[in-house]
Amino acid sequence: xxxxxxxxxxxxxxxxxxxxxxxxxxxxxxxxxxxxxxxxxxxxxxxxxxxxxxxxxxxxxxxxxxxxxxxxxxxxxxxxxxxxxxxxxxxxxxxxxxxxxxxxxxxxxxxxxxxxxxxxxxxxxxxxxxxxxxxxxxxxxxxxxxxxxxxxxxxxxxxxxxxxxxxxxxxxxxxxxxxxxxxxxxxxxxxxxxxxxxxxxxxxxxxxxxxxxxxxxxxxxxxxxxxxxxxxxxxxxxxxxxxxxxxxxxxxxxxxxxxxxxxxxxxxxxxxxxxxxxxxxxxxxxxxxxxxxxxxxxxxxxxxxxxxxxxxxxxxxxxxxxxxxxxxxxxxxxxxxxxxxxxxxxxxxxxxxxxxxxxxxxxxxxxxxxxxxxxxxxxxxxxxxxxxxxxxxxxxxxxxxxxxxxxxxxxxxxxxxxxxxxxxxxxxxxxxxxxxxxxxxxx
Length: 443
Fold this sequence. Notes:
Elements: H1 7-11, H2 21-40, H3 44-59, E1 63-69, E2 73-80, H4 84-89, E3 92-94, H5 98-106, E4 110-112, H6 124-128, E5 133-141, E6 144-153, H7 161-244, H8 250-279, E7 285-288, H9 289-303, E8 311-315, E9 321-324, H10 326-344, E10 352-360, E11 363-370, H11 402-412, E12 417-420, E13 427-434
Parallel strand pairs: 8-10
Antiparallel strand pairs: 1-2, 1-6, 2-3, 4-5, 5-6, 7-9, 10-11, 11-13, 12-13
């Protein structure tokens, strides 16, 4: 019995149908409805369940199996007419085993007749199910095996030519649907991956902004405070000398006293800013050093994709962990990597190495080494002073703040930062941070 959708085809058939033509028209009706269902299907298994329910009584079928080819064997993907135990036993069929495995091996359809009377070992599963006839065909698209589709019946030992042609045509529709669904799923997966990468890019950009706000801006405030404190101190001393001068009259002493008071107040505000920045959001955690180096590398590459030459990371086993604020140390590493990239970007065979070693039980020493023009010895002592680190070796926006920021952040960790001589040429910037609790255990 057809469902109500196929009744449209039945009613439109010629009134003069003969008994011989009736099966052909019924099969055409079934194929038309099946093709429509497969065309709309987003998942093949539910579509096959519906189609089998549609054709089961018309074609006198009792079971069907659809196996998907996974590259090594066949995995049961859709079925009807078998017990849960049989589903478990036949969930995976090796190539060459049983009816479906043999069809997958030969890539040719197989019609098994009189199964209960046969002693063919390939038909043992079918005999155990009580089947008398089985038709199985490979699902091939452009000569590539996608899986197999099999139908079985009890009570009749064979299939007619018309039934075989019908089932073979239906299998070709299933093949096209399976290929289309696979392409659609792959396309959706690629679109999801694209969306994931775009979301990750937005997250990285947001982290870059947070990193700038949380570390660079606060450190710039500390550096500016250091810069301003010197002229303010000088002005305070000058005004104090003016007030104590014997030639000063009472009015001058009053004015100078007021000026001195205001200068001292400004100095106190600056000292408060420095204390606030020094204590603000310093989160010391036991962290893997390599991970933070890679974060800094990704940060620089995201901002300037063509700046850095090949970068090698070498972390000694006993320096694998350190105790530090990740946001701030990533900022230090990013500053040093950016400096190194700019210094050696026009150098032949430019390369950068980042190493981490543990020469002291209590600290890890990190070095950023490049093969650029290097740093003159007379400049090494002033590189980290606010306003004196300007030049090719500092990327603090032309204010000499980049290395001063790094100096401030490392000092906040109780460490040291310096430039040292590099054997063979180039520049080496090194800094220390507290060793991690588990560093020795990783040795």
